[in-house]
Each structure stands twice: as C-alpha cells, then as structure tokens.
Amino acid sequence: MQTLLQYLNVSFHLQRTNNTLGAGIGYTDSTVALGDPKWNVDNTAFTQDWGRPQNDGPALRTIAILKIIDYIEQSGTDLGGEYPFQSVADIFDDIVCWDLKFIVEHWNSSGFDLWEEVNGLHFFTLLVQFSAVDKSLSYFNNTGWSSPFVEELRQTRQDIGDFLLDPENGFINSKYNYIVGTPAIADTLRSGLDISTLLAANILHDTPSASHLPFNINDPAILNTLHHLMYHMRSVYPINRGADNATGIALGRYPEDVYDGYGSGEGNPWVLATCAASTTLYQLIRMHISEQQDLVVPMNNETSNAFWSQLVFSDLTTLGDDNRYLILEFNSPAFNQTLQRILQLADSFLVKLKTHVGADGELSEQFNRHTGFMQGAQHLTWSYTSFWDAYQLRQEILQSF
C-alpha cells in the first residue's frame, strides 16, 4: 500500500511542476502542462526534445488512481498525515479532477501516440480518454456526487464516442474491416494496423460491466484487427514462419515498425503485444461466460468475420450478407467447443512467448525477429504487467469453464 500512496504523492507533485509545455497546476488555471509524458527520475521536468504532448497520460493516470481509490475504500486504509491528501475525496479533487479537466479541454487536440512517434489523433488515446471519463462518471454515480463538472464529463464522453464512431474521422473506414489506429498516416505511411487498438479495447472493457460501451472485445473490427496483425506479422517476423494460420505467433507494435529497441533498424515482436492478443481472447471468453451470452458469428467473409472464418472455424461457410449470423446458444455443445478453441488460440500466444524467455524469466521490451532472443529495454515493467494481466484473466475464466 505504501508504494501506491507514494505513486499518488508523486502524481500530485508532478501535476504542480512547471515543464516545457507550461506552468503546473497552482501557477495557472491551464491544464496544458499535464500533457508532458516524460520526467527525470528525481521528479524534475525533462527539458530536452521529446514527442510532446502525449494526451493519453492524464487518462491512464485517472484509470489507475480510480483503482487505487477503490482499494483504499475496500481495505479501509488510513491515509494518515504524511501526504498532501487526507481522504479519498482529496485524492479525487486534487489529482483526478485535474486530469479529467485536461481530457475535457484537450481530447480533440493533436498529440503523440503511445509509441511517442506520430503526432495526430489516435484511436488508443481517444478510447482511453473515453474510458477514464466513463469510469469517473461511474464513480460519481456510486458516491452520489453531483456538480456542473459531471455534466461536462457526460458531454465529453458523448463527444468522444461520436467522434470515434463517425466514419468521416477515419478510425472506421469502409476500405478496411479493422480499426485504423492513426487515420492521418493510413494509406501513405502505414496500413493503420496497430496493437494499441487491442490495448485500448482491453483497458475500456476490463470488467464485464463495461460490455455496453463501444468497441467491445466481440466487435468484428476489434477481432479483425487481431486477425490482420497475425496475417502480416506471420511473414514479417522470420521466427513466425511455418506457424499454422490458426496458431498464436509473436506480435509487434505495427507491421511497418523499424525501432529495434536501440535505434532505427528492423522492428521486432514485443512481449506486451504478444500478451495483448491473449488478453483480448481471454476477455472475449469471459464476456460470454459472465453474461451467459450467446456466441454470435457474422457470416460475411468480406467485411465482418475474417477472425471467425480464418482463426476459429476452418470450414465456416460465408453468405456474403451483413444481416446473416451464426448463433451458438449459451452453454450448448457448439458454444462450449468454440470457447475451448478460442482458449487454445489465446494460450498459444503465451506458449510462443515462453519459447523466447530465458532461464531466469527475464522479459525485455522486444525479442529479435530472427533469433528470438530478448533485446531492447531490459526488465520492462510493461512486459511483466502485460503477462500478469493475461495470466490472471486466464485463471479467472478457467474457474468458470
């Protein structure tokens, strides 16, 4: 618990520290400085060149802190007098609300993507902002707190959702049957495929109660993103060659990646990307089990069911009609057999990863596309947490089978 409280304390002070983007909270009413993604390890501002702003940061911090608040309340932790916040209400008012204000003011402003490479509007950034606002509104609803700011958040959630779903903005594009990660560079520099699409969907739909929100795990565009990433990376990375089309492989960030962990060269598979595929499929299973939901498979191979026809059902007959579906009734033999097949596919990504982990269990950022050995940032926290997320979710669904 002490580590979590220290994280909250650092967050409080970083919000109030001046940086290259502007003055910190307390010096100005502007929230623009909250978009700076990089700090020195002594919590001072990093003033060298970097890809800034990065507008996903306040949203991700909000999501993390809401989980910490829930843990504090459930455990009855006494915050004592050591920190600048004395209660859960202080944490929300003095940290979370500023990050939410940043989202309200800047969600439609260009910024760098989570890979800190491309400036623009990004599916990942927008969806985690949507998630942060939605989870905060749920918190307000549970606590009974009402204020004009709540209405601003409701409108922002609506605006972000509408923006993402509007084909004019390019995330949903009739040319593709998958999500376009950054529309501004699709067709010219990249295909639009990006593992961050799955990361964002997993963050938004981390609990069964979020199933009513857009871009759920069973959305054909989400599942087809996974299918197309597998299709491209099966040939891009030599360590994947020879793998069966319906077996998990090593995945990277996006097919055109050239960052090798040290500089520009050949992009490689990433631990977090490979684990994200497993997590997505485990979430798909959990959703159908927890909600006792029938499995609905679209029957149009051209637009909707590339995932189902090529990864799950090897002999699925397609009808070329967007309004035709195969429905597998909950808990029927066909339903259970299909979920078992999805479980096998999810597991196979982790099996692939296991073959490239050293004897000491070290997880770096990447593993070499030719040799399979770990490279890039060593002992990357994101790699370990990605595996842990997948493992915990797998343990949860195994208890339900």
TrEMBL record:
GO terms for biological process: polysaccharide catabolic process. This is glucan 1,4-alpha-glucosidase. Belongs to the glycosyl hydrolase 15 family. GO terms for molecular function: glucan 1,4-alpha-glucosidase activity. Pfam families: Glyco_hydro_15 (PF00723). The keyword Oxidoreductase does not apply. It is an enzyme of class 3 (hydrolase). Keywords: Carbohydrate metabolism, Glycosidase, Hydrolase, Polysaccharide degradation. SUPFAM superfamilies: Six-hairpin glycosidases. It comes from the Eukaryota. It catalyses: Hydrolysis of terminal (1->4)-linked alpha-D-glucose residues successively from non-reducing ends of the chains with release of beta-D-glucose. Residues 7-387 form the GH15-like domain. The keyword Hydrolase applies. GO terms for cellular component: fungal-type vacuole. Its EC number is 3.2.1.3.
